[in-house]
Amino acid sequence: MNLTVFALTGAALVGLGVYGLIARVHMLRRIMAFNLIGSGLFLFFGAAGARGVGLDPIPQALIITGIVVALSASALAVGLVVALARSSGTACLPDEAGDT
Length: 100
Prior knowledge:
The chain has about 100 residues and is mainly α. It has a single domain, classed as Orthogonal Bundle (Helix Hairpins), CATH 1.10.287.3510. Helix content is about 75%, strand content about 0%. The protein starts with a helix and ends in a 12-residue tail after the last helix. The mean pLDDT is about 85.
């Protein structure tokens, strides 16, 4: 039962992240929503890898690798948003600047 709760929580995090990615205009909020999607997927994969008699090390290795890649991709994305904000004066894309 615990693994089902973890898998459903991961699915809920992915859903919230997709909503935030679609509904938000500010680029930093979109980066946070994308990270929320990744965290939900990591939780779901961890719950899926724990099913059965023993623990499977492959999903655990994929989760650890994914965390490292997500951290570096987030740092790159935040750097690009900072460069966009310095050049244009706003952290929103030009065609979406009027929306909230």
